[in-house]
């Protein structure tokens, strides 16, 4: 138990197994073993240990709770619910079991039951930070009651000031409501940044963000973070930082290097900050060595652009002329203009979680939205499932041409986004590419260059950059179509 209390899980498991060798019918030891194994991520073993505990002593509420947690880890939410209920029957004031039961309700989409059971858990343990966080998360992602979400996130932070996920999710709600000045400090708690700081600390290094008013003459390596679209999203602040006198390098995914080089904002491009450091070390003595800044921290270096009214435009991106010409020729071979690109899914689903990384719009909804738009429809859906394009074509009543292979090369994707007349679908990397490029009519065609816009479907829970209501300041001119929570 001393090992477990100190967080030395592997040592604790070893001692517990030694104790069980002496007394294999000791249910409480099996229960503690289940707890330790779960901490080590050994879910199947934890499940077996918890099942052994309840078999030996069915009156042990902690063991039933652990069995429920193991089932929950395996995404067996219905089974987990039964075990949490049994734990509560044995110990009605078991706050953690009430919370875990509510977590299962949330995962199963039983939102009102979850609200009620979180409330019961808070009555029993009002100073439990995780309870406040979970209830805030439920209102944020489930009910859409943003005032309650903010209140509970802030309660969780008051009880545990270093609660990073509470800070991070609080920033998302504040962004959704347009309260950007309050949101940016909270966004600094995002998981990639926290992990970056921890990794530096392990090597005795600190992450020192330069002052916004002292950037003149500084050399900054902008490190890409999160996904490709997120990196492009935050690079809109790079011109403002450069205007303050900083020299900018980029350290990140090489697939972005060509288009970023053409912006003229970056002196050097490398796959990682370490590559830039190696180049500096190999250079002449006294060569300029700068600081590394995460892309998501660029807004902190441009305080003049931190309000909802002062969001800078997306970073301007220019496609390669030869690729642009080839893409336009490919579209002409498919059919007459206007050309409409569509995508209906992005990200990977996570069973039972209320989260925004996975987005999908039903094909019949997409077909209905496209029905009145003339021209040639092309699919830019990444990794479409078998038969999806054909199903959309059937619902739409006209051909849907598959150009999903353009997603394999960002330069091709950028050329396509600069060539189509419409982009309709969920938010993905193509939306970020489209936002940055200017749509220039082909030679001999009427019209003028226009900033790339899109018609974006935003399913609930709404992603923070698409706002809770109205247009998004991040994507000027784009139409936002929010699917209702029902």
How does this structure look, described?
With 486 residues, the chain is α/β, with parallel strands linked by helices. The protein has 3 domains: 2-188, Serine Threonine Protein Phosphatase 5, Tetratricopeptide repeat (Alpha Horseshoe); 198-310, no CATH class; 321-482, Rossmann fold. The protein is built from 22 helices and 14 strands. The protein has helices at residues 2-5, 9-22, 27-39, 43-56, 61-73, 77-90, 95-107, 111-124, 129-143, 146-159, 164-176, 180-187, 191-202, 228-234, 238-243, 257-261, 273-282, 321-334, 363-370, 388-396, 410-417, 429-436, and strands spanning 219-223, 247-251, 269-270, 291-294, 339-343, 345-346, 359-360, 376-379, 400-402, 422-426, 438-439, 450-451, 455-458, 479-482. The strands form 4 sheets. A 6-stranded parallel sheet has the order 9-8-5-10-13-14. Strands 3-2-1-4 form a 4-stranded parallel sheet. Strand 8, helix 20 and strand 9 (400-402) form a beta-alpha-beta unit. Helix 19 (363-370) crosses helix 20. The longest helix is centred in the N-terminal third of the chain and has 15 residues, at 129-143. The radius of gyration is 26 Å and the shape is globular. The model has no long low-confidence stretch (mean pLDDT 92).
Short description:
This protein has 486 residues and is an alpha/beta fold. The chain has helices at residues 2-5, 9-22, 27-39, 43-56, 61-73, 77-90, 95-107, 111-124, 129-143, 146-159, 164-176, 180-187, 191-202, 228-234, 238-243, 257-261, 273-282, 321-334, 363-370, 388-396, 410-417, 429-436, and strands at residues 219-223, 247-251, 269-270, 291-294, 339-343, 345-346, 359-360, 376-379, 400-402, 422-426, 438-439, 450-451, 455-458, 479-482.
């Amino acid at each position: 138990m001393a090992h477990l209390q100190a967080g030395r899980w592997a040592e604790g498991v070893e001692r517990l197994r030694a104790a069980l060798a002496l007394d294999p019918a000791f249910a409480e030891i099996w229960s503690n073993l289940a707890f330790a194994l779960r901490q080590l991520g050994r879910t199947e073993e934890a499940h077996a240990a918890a099942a052994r505990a309840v078999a030996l002593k069915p009156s042990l509420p902690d063991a039933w709770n652990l069995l429920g947690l193991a089932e929950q880890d395996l995404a067996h939410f219905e089974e987990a619910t039964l075990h949490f209920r049994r734990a509560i029957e044995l110990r009605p004031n078991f706050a953690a079991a009430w919370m875990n039961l509510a977590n299962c309700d949330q995962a199963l989409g039983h939102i009102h039951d979850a609200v009620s059971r979180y409330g019961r858990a808070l009555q029993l343990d009002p100073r439990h930070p995780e309870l406040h966080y979970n209830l805030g998360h439920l209102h944020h992602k489930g009910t859409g009651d943003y005032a309650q979400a903010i209140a509970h996130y802030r309660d969780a932070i008051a009880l545990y000031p270093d609660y990073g996920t509470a800070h991070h999710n609080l920033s998302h709600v504040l962004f959704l409501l347009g309260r950007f000045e309050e949101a940016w400090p909270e966004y600094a708690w995002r998981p990639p940044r926290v992990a970056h700081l921890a990794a530096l600390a392990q090597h005795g290094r600190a992450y020192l963000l330069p002052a916004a008013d002292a950037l003149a003459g500084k050399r900054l390596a902008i490190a890409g973070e999160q996904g490709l679209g997120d990196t492009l999203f935050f690079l809109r602040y790079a011109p403002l930082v450069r205007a303050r006198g900083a020299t900018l390098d980029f350290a990140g995914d090489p697939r972005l290097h060509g288009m970023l080089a053409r912006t003229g904002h970056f002196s050097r491009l490398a796959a990682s900050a370490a590559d830039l450091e190696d180049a500096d070390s190999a250079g002449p003595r006294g060569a300029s060595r700068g600081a590394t800044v995460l892309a998501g921290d660029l807004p902190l270096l441009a305080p003049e652009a931190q309000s909802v009214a002062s969001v800078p435009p997306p970073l301007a991106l220019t496609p390669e002329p030869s690729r642009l010409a080839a893409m336009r020729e490919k579209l002409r071979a498919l059919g007459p203009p206007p050309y409409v690109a569509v995508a209906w899914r992005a990200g990977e689903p996570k069973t039972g979680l209320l989260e925004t990384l996975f987005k999908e719009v039903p094909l019949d909804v997409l077909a209905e939205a496209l029905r009145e738009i003339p021209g040639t429809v092309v699919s830019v859906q990444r990794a479409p499932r078998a038969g999806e394009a054909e199903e959309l074509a059937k619902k739409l009543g006209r051909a849907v041409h598959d150009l999903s292979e353009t997603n394999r090369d960002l330069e091709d994707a950028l050329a396509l986004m600069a060539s189509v007349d419409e982009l309709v679908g969920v938010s993905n990397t193509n939306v970020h590419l489209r936002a940055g490029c200017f749509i220039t009519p082909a030679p001999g065609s009427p019209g003028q260059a226009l900033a790339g816009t899109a018609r974006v479907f935003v399913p609930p829970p709404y992603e923070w950059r698409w706002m809770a209501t109205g247009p998004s300041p991040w994507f000027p001119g784009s139409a936002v179509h929010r699917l209702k929570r029902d």
